[in-house]
């Protein structure tokens, strides 16, 4: 099988995020960068498919020079090769267009993306990529089986789950629960160094980045208002007071 | 001089960091409270990660990397618990290294691959009831009778005792005095005449197997002799590597305590603000950081200089002694940052303090390290006899 997994380098989930004073983005100094956790599920699923059916996994990532580390991490997990698109940043459409241009020549049987990236939370790139490649997409997948040339994917919806059968090739966006991503092993890390990574800029891909959407301003969330502690010794009275406050003050019930 | 890790080392550290936090940290409390040993199912995950035999040659299933790479892994693991770092310690700086350095080709093929797959680990047995720092006082005796050795004697405080499959046992092989008469023989668990004493209960490192080894006319094939009589003198070099490992345990524990204190100081409020805003707490945190960083640099230097070979006794003793001392100090300061909660078993810092206390005693006391340091510094060997 010819498998592609798209990955994005994002700030560590535990990183302390500070918005720049001018609101143009976040302060990047001192931030630890990691692979987007939802992309990790995609990479793991790609590796499992390869281990079961043979073939190879190509990692595709768009981002600045440091994104190479994330590609190497995926190679250390077991992928065969990588493509690094050296466009620092772009809106969702142009990101997907760049990925599509890089993937086109590979003719993959299946493409994995994370369901969204934890930095900008758009959740669009996987779907736009599918559209640009003319492929079906199943989003938020928590279980996947490939049989008889078809992808059978499970996605949870409110109160139920859907079993979706898709023709292949297709794009799958990975949701938490799909699998448990492996850790990069020491032998894997040592081998990753020797695996090929194609570095391509926009010109090499034959595209020009023309933003269709832009982030106008980034503002930090407002400070959370202080909580309220209901005093007293009688649990029943405290519960009644709580219900009253939730209704009258918080207006949530 | 370049203080940057290579890209591979950074990636390896990150991977081990996540493994320690996600897979091992949830088990630490149970190891400590129930004295439960690290079991084989989790050991298989170490194998998958390539954490066993980091310094052992690739042809026997190791990774063929340096003592420094093993130190990086141990540091990350000991940060959550020194027990978590033990399998790396045993297979990268422990007695299996002695097999690699002194063993015959047959012995290497026999003992190293099962260590790298986690199937059969090797423990070291030196200390005796009457021989600790004065190690060359040991009296456990091995006598060659035809094709086998007959061993009699007793070993004490043997880490891994009852749990490991192989024991590198240092024995007296003749009447030659001191180190000259000492050799090293691997005794397999289940050998006739080889039994274990009761498990020790220590202040810290709970869940680490440790007990007496008892040899009563114990029969061991003569092919198990790794370090011939008198070879013990050369072995002192191998202990330099082990010292780096021991020092890294203290470093990891201290680092874990510092990280815990840092988090707590930003969450806990007193007088209406986080306690990290008080200078009293800031000074504690800064002092802890300085000690951890200094120990880290000393250990890294000793391990890096070792390259693929062996570090110097001076550098490894300085590193071990300093790291052991600051391990006690930093965990104690972390407890202070936590206040009453630090003294409570509900929080992890009191365990870290207890866990830190064993290392200045084990693997050569900090006093013996100081004797080493003074000796190397003055170009003399100070006999303690």
How would you describe this protein?
The complex is a heterodimer of chains A (253) and B (385). With 253 residues, chain A is α/β, with parallel strands linked by helices. Chain A has helices spanning 37-53, 67-77, 92-104, 125-133, 186-192, 202-205, 235-248, and strands at 2-7, 9-11, 33-35, 56-62, 81-85, 110-114, 137-141, 143-147, 150-157, 160-167, 170-174, 197-200. Chain A folds into two domains: 2-205, Rossmann fold (3-Layer(aba) Sandwich); 226-253, no CATH class. Chain A has seven helices and twelve strands. In chain A, the strands form three sheets. A seven-stranded parallel sheet of chain A has the order 7-11-6-1-4-5-12, with helices on both faces. Chain A has a three-stranded antiparallel sheet with strand order 8-9-10, with no helix packed on it. Chain A has a two-stranded antiparallel ribbon with strand order 2-3. In chain A, α3 (92-104) packs across α4. Chain A is globular. The mean pLDDT of chain A is 94. Chain B has 385 residues and is α+β, with helices and mostly antiparallel strands. Chain B folds into three domains: 7-116, Butyryl-Coa Dehydrogenase, subunit A, domain 1 (Orthogonal Bundle), CATH 1.10.540.10; 122-230, Butyryl-CoA Dehydrogenase, subunit A, domain 2, CATH 2.40.110.10; 233-378, Butyryl-CoA Dehydrogenase, subunit A, domain 3 (Up-down Bundle). In chain B, strands 1-4-5-8 form a four-stranded mixed sheet. A four-stranded antiparallel sheet of chain B has the order 2-3-7-6, with no helix packed on it. A two-stranded antiparallel ribbon of chain B has the order 9-10. In chain B, α3 packs across α7 (232-267) and α8 (279-306) packs antiparallel against α9 (313-338). The model of chain B has no long low-confidence stretch (mean pLDDT 93). Chains A and B meet through α2 and α5 of A and α1 of B.
């Amino acid at each position: 099988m010819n498998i592609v997994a798209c990955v994005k380098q994002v700030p560590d989930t535990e990183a302390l995020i500070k918005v720049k004073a001018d609101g143009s983005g976040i302060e990047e100094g001192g931030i630890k960068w990691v692979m987007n956790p939802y992309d990790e599920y995609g990479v793991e699923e790609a590796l499992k498919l390869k281990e079961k059916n043979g073939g190879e996994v190509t990692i595709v990532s768009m981002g600045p020079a440091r994104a190479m580390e994330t590609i190497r991490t995926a190679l250390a997990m077991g992928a065969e090769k990588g493509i690094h698109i050296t466009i620092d940043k772009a809106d969702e459409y142009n990101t997907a267009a760049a990925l599509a241009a890089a993937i086109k020549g590979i003719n993959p049987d299946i493409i994995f993306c994370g369901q969204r990236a934890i930095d900008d939370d758009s959740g669009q790139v996987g779907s736009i990529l599918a559209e640009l490649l003319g492929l079906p997409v199943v989003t938020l997948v928590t279980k996947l089986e490939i049989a008889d040339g078809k992808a059978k994917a499970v996605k949870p919806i409110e109160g139920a789950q859907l079993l979706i059968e898709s023709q292949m090739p297709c794009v799958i966006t990975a949701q938490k629960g799909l699998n448990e991503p492996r850790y990069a092993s020491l032998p894997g890390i040592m081998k990753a160094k020797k695996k090929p990574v194609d570095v391509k800029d926009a010109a090499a891909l034959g595209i020009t980045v023309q933003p269709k959407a832009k982030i106008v301003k980034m503002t930090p969330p407002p400070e959370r208002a202080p909580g309220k502690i209901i005093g007293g010794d009688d649990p029943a009275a405290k519960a009644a007071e709580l219900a009253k406050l939730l209704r009258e003050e918080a207006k949530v019930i | 001089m370049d203080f940057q890790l290579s890209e591979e080392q950074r990636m390896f550290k990150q991977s081990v960091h996540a493994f320690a936090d996600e897979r091992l940290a949830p088990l630490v409390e149970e190891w400590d409270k129930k004295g439960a040993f690290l079991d084989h199912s989790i050991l298989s995950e170490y194998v998958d990660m390539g954490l066993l035999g980091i310094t052992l040659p690739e042809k026997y299933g190791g990774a063929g990397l340096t003592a420094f790479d093993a130190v990086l892994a141990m540091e990350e693991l000991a940060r959550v618990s020194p027990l978590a770092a033990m399998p790396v310690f045993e297979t990268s700086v422990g007695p299996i290294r002695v097999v690699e350095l002194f063993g015959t080709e047959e012995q290497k093929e026999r003992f190293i691959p099962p260590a790298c797959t986690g199937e059969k680990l090797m423990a070291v047995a030196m200390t005796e009831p009457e021989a600790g720092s004065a190690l060359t006082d040991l009296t456990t005796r091995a006598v060659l009778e035809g094709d086998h050795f007959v061993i009699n004697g007793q070993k004490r405080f043997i880490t891994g005792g009852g749990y490991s499959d192989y024991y590198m046992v240092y024995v007296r092989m003749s009447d030659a005095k001191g180190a000259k008469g000492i050799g090293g023989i691997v005794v397999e668990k289940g050998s006739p005449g080889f039994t274990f004493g009761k498990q020790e209960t220590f202040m810290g490192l709970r869940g680490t197997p440790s007990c007496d080894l008892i040899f009563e006319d114990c029969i061991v094939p003569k092919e198990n002799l790794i370090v011939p009589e008198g070879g013990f003198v050369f072995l002192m070099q191998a202990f330099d590597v082990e010292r780096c490992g021991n020092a890294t345990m203290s470093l990891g524990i201290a680092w874990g305590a510092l990280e815990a204190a840092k988090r707590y100081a930003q969450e806990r409020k007193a007088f209406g603000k986080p306690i990290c805003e008080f200078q009293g707490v800031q000074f504690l945190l800064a002092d802890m950081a300085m000690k951890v960083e200094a120990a880290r640099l000393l250990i890294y230097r000793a391990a890096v200089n070792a390259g693929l070979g062996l570090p110097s006794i001076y550098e490894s003793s300085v590193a071990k002694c300093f790291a052991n001392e600051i391990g006690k100090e930093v965990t104690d300061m972390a407890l202070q940052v936590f206040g009453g909660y630090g003294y409570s078993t509900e929080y992890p810092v009191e365990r870290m303090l207890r866990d830190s206390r064993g290392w200045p005693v084990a693997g050569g006391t900090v006093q013996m390290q100081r004797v080493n340091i003074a000796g190397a510094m003055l170009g003399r060997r100070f006999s303690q006899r």
